[in-house]
């Protein structure tokens, strides 16, 4: 029941995505209507996904987290898409903002597809761990793209904060190695959830610290380089666990 509702609402959201993209080249009224429609649809989708997560029962909290994370990714992608649509409104087809819009739309569709795959996998215990890991790998790749962009963070933090966040990577690495050894679905799902947060926190702290007023351009570039290298190394580890 929940799966059918999620599928139906997700399809409606994909249609809203198409309207948002085409709306950038049309009137402000059409764009506003598309934005409002997508906002209503994502609210409905979040509700049916939450009901689906609740139906799993409290004895499987890690899988519930996987589902909630999947809808959070879709909501974030929609927010970015609406922002990109506003930036591209009334601009010529070869304007850089149009390329950003197409990229945001692609991420949006990728995340909706990922959500649907996750919903399907939840019904099959044998594939839950694999799917959770695949979704986390995709999420980390998207976070890395944001990290590598020229966008300056809204706030800065101290280098100490960045160092503190690397501890989460150490813990997640140990968990990933253990999951690779045990191959138990619940261990793999827990690893996927922990990895997602650890890498995201590290990338955020690293970028914020690299833009601290006391940090030189050379040190900033080195910090951003090693943040990328750390993430790529961790992705390789997760790919190995997935292979196992």
Automatic annotation (TrEMBL):
Domain named Talin IBS2B: residues: 8-119, 129-241
Name of the molecule in the record: TLN2 protein
Localization annotation: Cytoplasm
Keywords associated with the record: Cytoplasm
Annotated source species: Ciconia maguari
Domain of life of the source: Eukaryota
InterPro entries associated with the record: Alpha-catenin/vinculin-like_sf, Talin_IBS2B
Gene Ontology CC annotations of this record: cytoplasm; focal adhesion; plasma membrane
């Amino acid at each position: 029941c929940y799966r059918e509702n999620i599928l139906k609402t997700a399809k409606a959201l994909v249609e809203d995505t198409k309207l948002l993209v085409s709306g950038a080249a049309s009137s402000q009224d059409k764009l506003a209507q598309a934005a409002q429609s997508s906002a209503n649809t994502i609210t409905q989708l979040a509700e049916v996904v939450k009901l689906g997560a609740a139906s799993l029962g409290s004895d499987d909290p890690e899988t519930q987290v996987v589902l909630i994370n999947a809808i959070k990714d879709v909501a974030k992608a929609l927010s970015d898409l609406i922002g990109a649509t506003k930036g591209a409104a009334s601009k010529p087809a070869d304007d850089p903002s149009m390329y950003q819009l197409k990229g945001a739309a692609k991420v949006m569709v990728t995340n909706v597809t990922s959500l649907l795959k996750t919903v399907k996998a939840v019904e099959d215990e044998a594939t839950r761990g694999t799917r959770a890991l695949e979704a986390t790998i995709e999420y980390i790749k998207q976070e890395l793209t944001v990290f590598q962009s020229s966008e300056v963070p809204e706030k800065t933090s101290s280098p100490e904060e960045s160092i503190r966040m690397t501890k989460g990577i150490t813990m997640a690495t140990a968990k990933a190695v253990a999951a690779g050894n045990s191959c138990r679905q619940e261990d793999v799902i827990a690893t996927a959830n922990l990895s997602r947060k650890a890498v995201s926190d590290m990338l955020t702290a690293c970028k914020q610290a690299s833009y601290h007023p006391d940090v030189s351009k050379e040190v900033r570039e080195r910090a951003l380089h090693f943040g990328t290298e750390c993430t790529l190394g961790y992705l390789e580890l997760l790919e190995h666990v997935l292979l196992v």
